[in-house]
Design brief:
Helix content is 48%, strand content 21%. The protein is an alpha+beta fold.
């Protein structure tokens, strides 16, 4: 009987995660600007944030004694909350003229594609990572992000147009998200 209760609890948690994911998807679709071309963090970071937050919250509420386990669950709760806030606040909205970039700690800032000074791309265990340098700001991108490849292709076309270059003649490597000169 106890195991059936555990299975039902897990089913309820996953159902709540799916419901919140669905509602957040509807909410984020409404907040897009322009024609809706955006770059967002991978969806699994949202799911992981929900799981850490819910499990940490349940454990903190269930455990009464202030112990190392309780402190660990509180850290898990805070980590889940941070992941959710970071997922909700990171967005790059772009169009044919430029893009705007916003994170948890930075206000929305608008860049034109001519402001891009270069990039640094490297392969890690998590996939291809790109550091895009724009007007003194370092923008960290990952190949797992939603919409990152179309964004970099649009940015490359805009960057070439701003510099008077032919996009087809410039050296790119789309597999490694390498579109701009190395810094």
């Amino acid at each position: 009987m106890k195991y059936i209760a555990y299975v039902l609890l897990i089913a309820v948690v996953f159902g709540l995660v799916a419901l919140v994911d669905f509602l957040l998807g509807k909410l984020l679709r409404r907040t897009r600007t322009g024609d809706g071309r955006t770059v967002r963090l991978p969806r699994y970071s949202f799911v992981l944030g929900i799981l850490l937050f819910v499990v940490g919250l349940m454990a903190v509420l269930y455990l009464q004694a202030l112990s190392a386990l309780w402190i660990g669950c509180l850290v898990m709760l805070l980590l889940g909350a941070f992941l959710l806030l970071h997922f909700a606040s990171f967005v790059i909205d772009y169009d044919d003229a430029g893009f705007s970039y916003r994170t948890l700690l930075r206000r929305r800032r608008r860049f034109s594609y001519g402001d891009i000074t270069g990039q640094r791309a490297f392969v890690a265990r998590s996939g291809v990572n790109v550091l895009l340098y724009c007007d003194g700001v370092e923008i960290a991108l990952n190949g797992a992000m939603q919409g990152v490849k179309p964004f970099l292709e649009t940015a490359h076309r805009g960057w070439c147009a701003a510099r008077g270059l032919d996009p087809d003649q410039s050296e790119t490597n789309p597999d490694y998200l390498s579109y701009f000169p190395e810094v």
